[in-house]
Amino acid sequence: MPRRLAALLLGALYVIGVVYGTFVLVLRPPPPPHVALPAARPALTQHLLFVVVDGLRYDVATDAARMPRFAEAMQRHRSAEILAGRISMTSAAVQNYGTGQRGCFAQIVRNINPDPPPYNSWLHNAAERGRKLALAGDPVWIEMYGDSFAERLLDPEGVAMDYDFNARTFASTRTLLEKKPDLLVAHFVTPDHQGHVYGIPSERYARHIRGFDRELFRLLGELSSDWTVVVTSDHGAADSGTHGADVPIQRRSPIFAYGPGIAAKERQAQPQILDQSDLANTLAALLGVPGAAHSQGHLLTSWLAVSPEARADYACTDATRAVALARGAAASQAEPLAARLDSICSPRLSPEKRQQMADGLVREIDALLTSLQDFSSTRAWAFLLATLVGAALVGWLLVGENLAAAGVCGALGLVAIALVAWLEHLPGYWPKTLDGVLFVVFNLPSLLFLLRPERLVTLLSGRPLVAAAIVPGGFAVAYPTNLQPVAFSICLAASLVIALGPAPGRWGIWWDRASTPHRLGNLALVLAWGAAFAPAGIYASGSYSSFAQREQLTLAIAVLLVASVAWMLVRNLPGARRQWVLFLALATASLVLRRSSPPWLGRPLLLGLPLAGVWLLWRRQLALGWWLIFCGFIWVSRDFELLPACAGLGIALLLGERFAGVAGDGWSRGRRLIAVGVLFCVIFLVRLGISQGLDVLSLDFGAGAFGDLHVPARWVAFAVIWKYVLVTVLLVFAVLRGLPSAVASGTVVALIVLGVTRAAVLLGMMQCSQGSFWTTMRVMSDLPFALLFAVAAALALPWAGVVSARTEQGA
User: Fold this and answer.
1) pLDDT at 678
2) In sequence order, which residues have a C-beta less than 8 Å from that of residue 669 and are 6 or more positions away?
3) Is cis: bond before 347, omega within 30 of 0?
4) Cβ(361)–Cβ(341) under 8 Å?
5) pTM
6) How far apart are alpha carbons 575 and 635 in whole angstroms?
7) Which end of the chain is more exposed for a tag (fewer CB within 10 A), N or C?
8) Contact (Cβ atoms closer than 8 angstroms) between residue 355 and residue 308
9) Edge-to-edge strand ranges of the sheet holding 78-83
């Protein structure tokens, strides 16, 4: 007991440490230091047109067969290859264009609706000085720099991904060009959408990009000679059209520029390679406004059509600003670099040397600041190591006698981390292809469970290392998008195999005439629950959106599912037969009343009912206690959430019924691990259903509000957490009721270890994928639930023996 108590205390510290370390130490950028705006110089152009061709790859833009006019412009004008940040997404690029700061965690979480960046923007500086700025196209610019743009003609909202609205964006651009703004940003989104839908190598995309190439240069040909033109892209794309990862093909983009203020093209053996952060203050210099004070890029002085002396002055001014930024962000580490500034910008040096050395100093400062940010920092790697060690300690304290099995699970986690990081860096379609192959290969053993369940039980019981690697270790380290279909398949297969088994001591599907009606009823329930589970197991997001919009249908289905759960409880819990009408009436009343209840009634009930249920469980009134907890969940849930919740609870109750028939000595290692694995999959799938998929954008942000327009954010956060804890505890209790006390306690301990291990592996995937948009988004969506999963299991541990004891005593 002291060892288990120490494990739980360490686990609590682990959960707190993971939350604090992830969101505060690693992923929350510090507030930018105050840096004086650099001095503005005279404008080099009267009008600047900045064109962004969304998702245009460098190899596509330089291919004369696919984009002949663009490829010719890259040869004729000042041009280069330009790299997006490691988070190769649009909002990250737009932040980079305006502030010179690459995308960070905020662009991962809120790529669709980003907040205004906390950094100084040259666009803001230009607007403050009376320059007229205009925008045509992507509204993300307005979301990030809205007050800076006096004129805007935005793309249509709510259109399908494959809808081509290039003509509208071109028309908007021409309309704004006629008004002669100082700066016009024209951001064409449709090329990116076509790549997403049809793939970059497709003939459909090839036709689209050829037509876009023709229309773009028809527009550029209409401009007067007083316009300076800069054309680039926000990111590249994989062959599938995907982007967001730190992969060359997804980061490489083209850029060319010409017109007043742009130097003539130089002969180069290899294309120049730029960084998106270099554009912010270069565009500011062309327009003659102060650059972005917090930019980490260096001003492209070699691109400016000015004298060598002026280029050196531009470079030294930019280096002075960068030194001030470094001192504010990393004072002690910046001093050696700052000490070199005077010698670098000494008038004794030639202009060319001053320019070259000042540019180099800004790059060194950029490297220093980058090493202190997000996933690149030493702090992030130290946090990951501490997380892995903490998870290992919690696991060892809980199941220390199985060190070899724990070692296999740990090794499996490291392999999973390495695979995720490696797969994302493969070119073309290879990531998805190899991921699919590995997915099939690693899941082939699970087919044995469906075909020969007793054979798999025997195999796992006699080979603990194999058991640890397959079930449940494989679930603990699975990538979220892979775990979703696996969990759905296992929920259905396990329900059929275990619940419809022929005898208490064996698992497998066959029929005898005496039990046919009973099993047919079970089969009908499993199929109904499987249908309710299907959206959660198939769709990555918005799985129950259609139900959420049709409340009456949702309510009817929810009542039907509640009735089916009630039937399961009545049939399988002795003593519940006399009370089932009361229980069902209580659940129905909760469904109806919570829709119109005021906060003074709803909030106490969503807390009071579950707490009363826990007290009744302790008093061994299992049926009433379980139902009160369930009614508490109803009070804090949305209508459609009852579909996956009731499906999961029904399957858990059915499994608990089947487990109750297995004698205590029949619980071999294989059966225990399979029970833990199936329960984990049910909990994971219910979580997906309640949150409408893998991401957290569909969380219930009105939980516990009950019509209160001024509900505190802290209360909503608590209500959301409370909801997931309640449903997890319900699922665990539903299965534990069929297990012997020792097996029940061991199952809960295994669930705690699963949650802790999964959290550590998910953090490892995120860290080693170096800020990939997709990995970080999926990990950050799943990480809180892995921690909640462990917390809920820990809360259920003291009641494990109580819940299972009733079954053993025949109460």
Assistant:
1) 85
2) 460, 461, 464, 467
3) no
4) yes
5) 0.79
6) 26
7) N
8) yes
9) 151-154, 133-137, 183-188, 47-53, 227-232, 252-258, 78-83, 273-275
